[in-house]
Design a protein that fits this description.
By secondary structure, this protein is of the alpha/beta class. The chain has eight helices and seven strands, in the order βαβαβαβαβαβαααβ. Strands 3-2-1-4-5-6-7 form a seven-stranded parallel sheet, with helices on both faces.
């Protein structure tokens, strides 16, 4: 039996990268997927790909840094499919690269709004809908930088640490109400956000930072997200799962 058969799933930032791979995998596992992204062209392409393959999906344009867009996304899920069972809060941005003293204020605000506040807004509206649906699973996409630091990305590091903490707090609040909430910590993954921003020499350097000596693939992250979303992980909540090619073991 498919692990997400007839489950209604929201995936933010699913127009590319990890979100896209997760949307396609969840649809293969029987989910009704709300593909959501700020990029309408990419989002529509992913939803069309799912439908063409025989799955069920609809695209809803949303900017998760805006509370109202998160509320509307949940409302559309319930309106379209009658319930909400799973949410993957994946949308995120890298932000400026700079020392703290030189870091632009507007860059800080944008990264925090998207990568941290966006997850809070998602939880705020997803949880009540899941309670009405009898429970569910929420997976927040953090990062290895939710566990350790790095230079020149203070807003990203702060936001991802915040996602890990927010996940734990939310999980404790709703553990006895049949809602499980976990976070995933990918290392450097071969996504457009990474590969479009860096040259080959830098990418080679980054690969070498992982004991496995390569970048991760979006599909590998999607498999972990699927497990956390499904009943196969029914005793798991409040946890942070690195998926990092050995990065944090060093």
């Amino acid at each position: 039996m498919k692990s997400l058969k007839d489950k209604v799933v929201i995936i933010t930032g699913s127009g590319s990268g990890i979100g896209r791979a997760t949307a396609i995998l969840c649809a293969k596992e029987g989910a009704k997927v709300l593909v959501s992204d700020i990029n309408e062209e990419n989002g529509l392409a992913v939803s069309a790909e799912i439908v063409h393959a025989g799955g069920e999906a609809v695209f809803i344009k949303a900017d998760t840094s805006k509370a109202e867009d998160n509320r509307t996304l949940v409302e559309q899920a319930v309106l379209k499919y009658g319930a909400l069972h799973v949410a993957v809060n994946n949308a995120g941005i890298a932000g400026p690269i700079s020392t703290i003293a030189e870091y632009p204020i507007d860059g800080w605000q944008k990264v925090i709004e998207t990568n941290l506040s966006g997850v809070f807004y998602g939880l705020k509206y997803q949880i009540p809908a899941m309670l009405k649906s009898g429970g569910g699973s929420i997976v927040n996409i953090a990062s290895i930088l939710g566990a350790v630091g790095t230079k020149f990305s203070p807003a990203y590091v702060a936001a991802k640490h915040g996602v890990v903490g927010l996940t734990k707090a939310a999980a404790l609040e709703y553990a006895d109400q049949k809602i499980r909430i976990n976070s995933v910590g990918p290392a450097y993954i071969k996504t457009p956000m990474l590969t479009n921003a860096l040259d080959e020499a830098t990418l080679t350097l980054i690969k070498g930072m992982h004991p496995i000596n390569r970048l991760g693939e979006s599909e590998e992250i999607a498999e972990l997200i699927l497990w956390l979303a499904s009943e196969k992980s029914s005793f798991v909540t409040g946890s942070y799962y690195p998926i990092d090619g050995g990065y944090l073991a060093q």
